[in-house]
Specification:
Length: about 260
């Protein structure tokens, strides 16, 4: 079913649970720790937020899973859905790096139009340019995070070649404050050039530093670097709007991908 066999059910769950969620809300995954030492599980929060990691809307998905050493994919079955937040434990049976993922999720259907610069703008308001044609668009969301038990490994970092995703060039366990970490943005396995990357930080709602590192764009090869200004937990957000594949519910889709990562001293 769907992405990893669960997409259709995941989308139905979102629409039933939160029909009013705005397309601007950010999906996120937040583990209780990134370096597991020798723990055999990880506890993860997930949700949708306007402020990074402050969940306002529960994230429902039948596609939660981990990808671990050797590329083994393990579905996460026991998930607790609160009214505003999702919580689950994921097994980490062997040493190495794991990608914890929401799986791709079908979201609400809205409208968008092309702005003066030729970019797609979500919204149906009266502020749109005269003559701008509204088109139907469906949101697609995917949130991921990497955690490591023992020594880092690279199997889980390999791209799937599906939808919108980041390939870490710098291992997520080796991201440090004040040092650049490099990633590659892919869509259906191909690099995406000229995409905007937004970076948010934890505790930003209190210290006024919600969004950091403005004006990051992917280069011609889809690569970009993030230099965290200080130690902490960060969220990278990328949106990509494009035509839908044949047979889709709407002619266009708005893909949102987030990666949570920790920068250490």
């Amino acid at each position: 079913m769907g992405r990893l066999g669960f997409a259709a059910l995941a989308g139905a769950g979102l629409l039933a649970a939160a029909p009013g969620v705005a397309l601007a809300h950010m999906p996120f995954m937040l583990p209780n720790m990134f370096d597991l030492t020798d723990r055999d599980h990880i506890t993860v929060q997930a949700g949708f937020a306007e402020d990074a990691f402050v969940s306002e809307v529960v994230m429902k998905s039948d596609a939660f899973h981990t990808r671990g050493p050797g590329g083994t994919v393990t579905p996460i079955k026991d998930v607790t859905y609160l009214r505003d937040l999702t919580v689950f434990e994921a097994p980490v049976p062997a040493k190495g790096t794991y990608r914890v993922s929401s799986g791709e999720r079908f979201g609400r259907v809205g409208k968008m139009y092309k702005g003066p610069a030729g970019d797609w703008v979500i919204g149906e308001g009266a502020e749109r340019p005269a003559g701008a044609q509204l088109v139907d668009v469906q949101s697609m969301t995917l949130a991921e995070v990497y955690v490591t038990r023992g020594s880092p490994t690279k199997d889980a970092l390999a791209p799937t070649g599906k939808s919108l995703e980041l390939r870490p060039i710098t291992h997520p366990s080796e991201i440090f404050a004040a040092r650049p970490a490099t990633f590659e943005l892919l869509f259906e396995g191909k690099p995406v050039a000229g995409a905007n990357v937004e970076v948010y930080r934890s505790a930003g709602v209190y210290d006024g530093k919600k969004k950091v590192l403005d004006q990051i764009k992917t280069d011609a090869s889809g690569r970009f670097s993030i230099t965290p200004p200080d130690a902490g937990t960060y969220l990278a957000l990328i949106r990509h709007r494009t035509a839908s594949p044949a047979g889709a519910q709407t002619p266009y889709r708005s893909y949102s991908y987030t990666l949570t990562f920790e920068a250490t001293e």
